[in-house]
């Protein structure tokens, strides 16, 4: 699979990473190489094979539906690039 | 008298109990060693005050005869682990300055058992790399030197951990292994390291890379030291839904070196093109060592081996692209706000400035293979091949108890040697990735030296939950190999 610079731009936007035009061309070449390489999986017959998501069998556990944490607003905000009035602050999102 | 930093962790533990030296003396010797080795760039943060504080507590406990398993043992913690109040940046610009208000389960268990922390260890950014060259804190230098005094990489991603252990800066270190990040750097620096079965160590508080693969494990001078650390690191944690609720064995007690009645499998598919003759020779020698220790050597087949790396390079980036979505400049870490820009502009600028080239590459691959129209062809296909790779191992384990293989296809290489070709770099993990995909316990132990005098590792892969069998086979090799080479202190 060959990826062009426009596709890289589109994927980069999906991933919320700004990519300049000169870099998107380089990235297109690199991604094409890697995707070309992984395409060898097409050789493998996987008919009837269940996809593996959890490698070691384990069942999800239940727990009591109780509050186990909280009251740590200061700690939660302590690493925020910008915090105001006890909230995370971000650029305006509503016009 | 041997320098305190030259002792194994087990010897430190025993010496502390016999009052041969104090925990304070031990910590001070290590703090001095760390300061003297800054040129290796193994640490992202040094925390001598924490090491000395733990030593004080250890000396008090030792005096009262209440020593804990790791009382007074000074460790290094990989920067991927959240450590309370101490910068935990995953060696990325996007997390520089992040001081977690909480402690990861694994580091917390080590400290609860009495260990102290000398500092945070450098690594590849977000554990993505095999040479420690993608770190935002700079490349780590391998304490071993190449021909003509060439500077070598320490392996990766746990390259700060491997360098610090090999240079005797720490008694032991934590590592994490997603596709070889404990075993390959251990091999490159002549030390031991084990990745336990997926689920043995809690992932809580470890910066997530590829959640279905990530496992923590110890890196140390020898197999016994790994066994001691592993016991403290393992155990059920309700905060990690994939944590296994099982008792933790006494790994150290499993070390007998006796391989009688054990069958060791040699996978024929691990003979790959271009692998140096000296690595093939070492592999054969390793089989001889285990045979001499009483094991029976059997040929096995893992037919899907050659598909493991491409499978990994779909699954790991896919999971990474999802995990790393959280770094958005809102709650922690870096924020870049373009003048007059929107929230989306802030996200994009922050992530572009904060992530390094390799991390961006993997996020883009992951986003691509998960995007509409490609999900089935790439991600689902990879998950199916992953099932076949695991099936290969389960079938092989009907014929053998452990598998012996090389750890890496080469000795440590020069800094900059592979940075321009991502696929060449990925091939470093060709022998490590299959066991990761199958969630199996696997370790690397030093087996000998290359023609250039550099350490080479042998890898033992075990059945699920058979860390004891893996460690004991590693111990048998260690005893037979008598590996005592160490880098000369040039720093």
From TrEMBL, chain A:
SUPFAM superfamilies xref list: Glu-tRNAGln amidotransferase C subunit
Domain of life: Bacteria
GO molecular function: ATP binding; glutaminyl-tRNA synthase (glutamine-hydrolyzing) activity
Gene Ontology biological process terms, A to Z: glutaminyl-tRNAGln biosynthesis via transamidation; regulation of translational fidelity; translation
Reaction(s) catalysed by this chain's protein: L-glutamyl-tRNA(Gln) + L-glutamine + ATP + H2O = L-glutaminyl-tRNA(Gln) + L-glutamate + ADP + phosphate + H(+); L-aspartyl-tRNA(Asn) + L-glutamine + ATP + H2O = L-asparaginyl-tRNA(Asn) + L-glutamate + ADP + phosphate + 2 H(+)
Pfam families reported in the protein's UniProt record: GatC
Entry EC no(s): 6.3.5.-
Function, as annotated: Allows the formation of correctly charged Asn-tRNA(Asn) or Gln-tRNA(Gln) through the transamidation of misacylated Asp-tRNA(Asn) or Glu-tRNA(Gln) in organisms which lack either or both of asparaginyl-tRNA or glutaminyl-tRNA synthetases. The reaction takes place in the presence of glutamine and ATP through an activated phospho-Asp-tRNA(Asn) or phospho-Glu-tRNA(Gln).
Protein name (Swiss-Prot/TrEMBL): Aspartyl/glutamyl-tRNA(Asn/Gln) amidotransferase subunit C
Organism: Sphingosinicella microcystinivorans
